[in-house]
Design a protein that fits this description.
The protein is of the alpha+beta class. The protein is 48% helix and 20% strand. The chain contains 23 helices and 24 strands. Strands 5, 6, 7, 8, 9, 10 and 11 form a 7-stranded antiparallel beta sheet that branches. Strands 12-24-23-22-13-20-21 form a 7-stranded mixed beta sheet, with helices on both faces. A 6-stranded antiparallel beta sheet has the order 14-19-18-17-16-15, with helices on one face. The chain is elongated, with a radius of gyration of 32 Å. The chain starts with a strand and ends in an 8-residue tail after the last helix.
Length: 704
């Protein structure tokens, strides 16, 4: 997506099935909108609008002309008097007496004029609710489920009305059928909407973590003292000072200026053990202070904070469909025309070929219309994906979409970086050999260069040599990923990095080399610990039949040792970012490959893999560098993400199987006359609920 586009979020009410969403999608794509995402279950419409194409107002007007209602953030929400629950209650009030007419002993309810009076309000409501939606879908070229409901209920009501006007007797009275179809479908919509809300709790729960107000610190000019004032979090700016105390939620990403506190960061890491924060430490907006108090300096505004990035990532994740859902969408586009054809065929075969009465043939075709359910196919994937993504977020795992879930679940090759991935990345200096020159000068040059890199090795070198260094004049500092850093220190050209910085072949004695004016002056040996959970994680993937490979820029002997300790199938050492990228591309051509790295040095390889997994501290760069982000760098979360992906994909397949199986079985049964239209409507209404209920099982199922 280029910079010449604007992201637009709308709430569109009135969509009732996947075909409604397909119709709105086609309209937006014809208008030139990009990355269109429409979710009829949650009323979400998201797209990127190219500049100088059309205005948002034109798009809103176009959607409303299709028969849907657009509610923007800056517009008042519509009154709830016309919501689906009220429509259901209104129709049920008239439908119940009609059903009671089927019970002997209430003769006045059996009167055709009484039934006409009771059925007419329900039918008119159905025309308003389903008829408008049906007409809107026909305008988009994608007829939806409401076309079937409208035709079925209209046929039953019109047939009954004709029988009443012509005084043809009770054999022509199907008022209760027309009213019951409308009422039961509305009931299904009510249950569906309430159930879907339970699948979308992840975003709502994340939004609740953001506090509305904060106590900003300022100096009172009158008293000359520091005081606090409660302000809206949206009014805070970078470098503002805020006061936080026991029990507060940290308002925004910030740096501790003074004080000490214990913070619950479970919203980020999934771990509930409090973390001690003191002066200089970074804290994340939305996390809770268990004990202590501090003054914080705001590091980012609300829209740039980690919490907002996570919320946006979860929203974006819901737009990416797995391939199995794309097949369901193609089938759904043809579903209504096919069902209409089957209903017409059922009527004529029943009446002319099977010698069924006119009323019986009509009831069979109506049953075919109302029992068919494309909605279940539309709900199969988004409900499962929303629940799966929500559960992963609570575990400190960010998965970017249904397509990523599918790719991760189907992994055949797992590639892991060494430093910071299989090892803890907490390097310490094992040995430093001064080969020539002044020790103090070398230490100072190393510290001056390494403070310009965020690599774990650079941090270790800076922590070790920084206290022993002296001030120097530095400039023209450059970092070559996978190699090292170079720059001018006190007028001399210095380099710190691996053996690739040397102009002559070197032995494998050192991990880091230091040169001054292209002359080797020092060698440094590092030590790093393998993570405790690394071997168990590798063993799990091997048990699943997944090939495990260590891919690292480190020395061969170090990689061999780590590979042996963790049980890797194979390893490749001394790889540059470019060679890693080439190898990943080569291996990805034939099998599903997942790459796990630190999200910084490995970003090219992460992007080239089918699935890139970043073990990071949740920096903005890390969040955008991979399709999966493990926020606390714990490899056991990698295992959990794979299990969750498999469970979610399994749920999607179960949902789609039910949706297809239901329609393939139910439509012939209805056509054969074994189901009345009322039972058919009840079956259709609850077929969606079964799909949603199966998705909701993901919230509580044991991860295994």
């Amino acid at each position: 997506m280029t910079n010449e586009s604007m992201a637009v979020d709308l709430e569109v009410q009135g969509m009732t099935c996947s075909n409604c969403a397909l119709g709105v999608t086609r309209f937006l794509e014809k208008k030139g909108m990009k990355d269109v995402y429409v979710n009829f279950a949650t009323n979400e419409v998201r797209f990127h609008m190219p500049e100088n194409e059309v205005s948002v107002r034109d798009i809103v007007n176009g959607i409303q002309e299709l028969g849907y209602q657009v509610v923007q953030q800056d517009m008042a929400k519509p009154k709830k008097i016309g919501d689906i629950e009220r429509k259901f209650l209104f129709s049920a009030l008239f439908t119940i007496p009609l059903l009671l007419s089927m019970i002997p002993g209430i003769p006045w309810l059996d009167n055709m004029y009484v039934q006409l009076v009771l059925a007419t309000p329900v039918f008119l409501l159905g025309v308003w609710h389903f008829g408008r939606s049906a007409l809107a879908s026909l305008r988009t070229g994608v007829p939806n489920m409401d076309v079937l409901i409208f035709i079925g209920s209209t046929a039953a009501f019109t047939y009954s009305l004709a029988g009443t006007i012509l005084q043809l007797g009770h054999d022509y009275m199907f008022y209760e059928t027309a009213a019951t179809i409308i009422t039961l479908v509305l009931l299904g919509n009510v249950i569906e909407k309430r159930s879907v809300k339970r699948t979308t709790t992840a975003i709502a729960e994340l939004q609740k973590l953001q506090p509305d107000t904060a106590r900003r610190l300022f100096f009172d000019l009158a008293s000359g003292e520091q005081t606090t004032m409660e302000v809206s979090v949206s009014d805070l700016r970078v470098n503002d000072l805020v006061q936080v105390n026991d029990g507060d939620r940290i308002p925004l990403d910030a740096v501790v200026k003074s004080g000490q506190m214990e913070v619950n960061e479970s919203m980020i890491t999934g771990e509930s053990i409090p973390v001690v924060k003191q002066a200089g430490d970074l804290v994340t907006g939305g996390t809770i202070i268990i004990s202590g108090q501090a003054q914080l300096r705001i590091a980012s505004v609300q829209q740039d904070g980690l919490l907002n990035n996570i919320i946006q990532l979860v929203k974006d994740a819901q737009t990416k469909k797995p391939s199995v859902q794309k097949l369901a969408d193609r089938i759904a586009a043809w579903f209504v025309p096919v069902v209409l054809s089957i209903a017409v065929l059922t009527f004529f075969i029943s009446w002319f070929a099977v010698d069924v009465s006119l009323s019986g043939s009509l009831l069979r075709s109506i049953a075919v219309l109302v029992i068919a359910c494309p909605c279940a196919m539309g709900l199969a994937t988004p409900t499962a994906v929303m629940v799966g993504l929500g559960r992963s977020v609570k575990q400190g795992i960010l998965i970017k979409g249904g397509s990523t879930l599918e790719e991760l679940a189907r992994t055949e090759i797992l590639v892991l970086d060494k430093t910071g991935t299989l090892t803890d990345g907490q390097f310490h200096i094992d040995r430093t050999d001064i080969l020539s020159g002044d020790k103090k000068e070398i230490f100072s040059a190393v510290a001056a260069l390494e403070r310009h890199s965020s690599h774990p090795i650079a941090k270790a070198l800076q922590a070790h040599f920084g206290p022993m260094s002296e001030p120097v004049e530095s400039g023209d500092i450059q970092e070559t990923k996978g190699v090292g850093l170079k720059g001018l220190i006190n007028g001399n050209s210095w380099q710190v990095g691996n053996k690739l910085i040397l102009h002559t072949p070197a032995d494998e004695t050192y991990d880091v080399y230091v040169t001054c004016n292209d002359q080797l002056v020092a060698g440094i040996r590092l030590a790093d610990q393998v993570k405790q959970e690394a071997a168990a994680a590798v063993r799990y993937f091997k048990e699943q039949g997944i090939k495990t490979v260590l891919l690292s820029g480190d020395r061969s002997d170090t990689c061999a040792t780590v590979a042996e300790q963790t049980g890797m199938d194979s390893w490749l050492a001394e790889q540059t970012p470019a060679s890693k990228l080439d190898w990943i591309r080569e291996q990805s051509s034939g099998k599903k490959l997942t790459m796990v790295g630190d999200g910084i040095n490995d970003s090219p390889a992460l992007a080239a893999a089918h699935t890139g997994v970043s073990l990071s501290d949740a920096s903005a760069a890390a969040i955008h560098s991979a399709q999966v982000v493990l926020l606390d760098g714990d490899l056991s979360k990698l295992v959990m993400s794979h299990k969750l992906s498999r469970m979610t994909l399994q749920t999607i397949k179960q949902n789609l199987f039910w949706a297809f199986f239901y329609n393939v079985l139910a439509i012939p049964v209805a056509a054969a006359g074994f189901l009345s239209p009322m039972i058919a409507a009840l079956s259709m209404a609850f077929s969606d609920v079964i799909v949603i209920g199966n998705s909701l099982r993901l919230r509580t199922r044991k991860i295994r």
